[in-house]
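Bug report (template v2)

What were you trying to do?
Predict the complex of my protein with iron/sulfur cluster.

What happened?
Run completed; filing so the output is reviewed.

Input:
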Amino acid sequence: MTTTIYVFSGTGNSLWAARSLAAKLPCARVESVVRASCGSPRVDSDSVGIVFPVHMWGLPPRVVELASRLEVPAGAYLFAVAVNAGQVARTLVQLRELLEERSLKLAAGESLVMPSSYIPWGGPGPKRKQEARFEQAREKLDALSARVARHEPGQIEVGPLWQRLAFTAAYKATYPHLGRMDRRFWTDERCNRCGACARVCPAANVVLDSGKPHWQGRCEQCFACLQWCPRQAVQYGKKTPRYPRYHHPEVRVGDIVDLAGGGERASEAKA
Ligand SMILES: Cc1cc2nc3c(=O)[nH]c(=O)nc-3n(C[C@H](O)[C@H](O)[C@H](O)COP(=O)(O)O)c2cc1C
Ligand code: SF4
Ligand code: SF4
């Protein structure tokens, strides 16, 4: 049995989840959703997973794109993990419907609650609460990996009705404007022009001008640029200077650069 797990991740929670699943399955590999968007996302695995963060109560644009192009063998077992901070809303139903349009069946859709990467609403919460979420996530991933190994259908998890009604409308209203929402990013005096914010960006949306970051209006709102800045110099709106940064403790900045293809961009710029 072989498994391919596609992953998109800003602060590493989804990457950690994808790696944890891969470690429990035989012949499993983790592939970047961003890298897959450069070519044809065609896989020949028996099981195919998509692991991603919930953004604005729905799918991030990269995952919408992957779902509309993914090619898998007939009969492959398709599963998804929507990593979120407690409001999964209707995200996994959105994914199921997108796949159904292409006659692909989502066999299982799991919601995984992890610390929040959405810093405009505050930090990731106390360490104790973060640990409790990691522990619950480990248990859910254990159960999911067993189900994937048996190709056993599972549920498509959803949030409560009020979430699905109110927030699906909010998602639809926000989605067309995501690219330009980077107008609220700015850098403070701590920026030392190291370029990490540009390398972690999955959309090549942070461009350095004499070393100083500028956002280009094609943002995917993953918040990697802000959360991974080693000097905490990237801000968004007025409140972020007083909120703590977050990334998953077992994920390193190089892992996110690799997912985003930022290393290649940096070498091309030098050549
Ligand atoms: C722009 C943005 C929007 C978000 N929207 C939601 C949301 O609607 N519901 C939710 O539960 N969490 C939301 N989050 C939190 C992330 O889904 C959550 O922290 C996730 O674990 C991040 O995964 P990552 O580290 O792989 O990027 C949002 C985060 C960002 C950056
Ligand atoms: S990562 Fe931070 S310090 Fe480095 S260039 Fe970007 S804003 Fe400046
Ligand atoms: S600019 Fe920042 S928030 Fe937007 S896609 Fe790039 S890394 Fe993510």
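What did the reviewer find?
The pocket of flavin mononucleotide (ligand 1) is lined by residues 9-14, 53-57, 83-87, 114, 116-118, 221-223 (CB under 6 Å). The radius of gyration is 18 Å.
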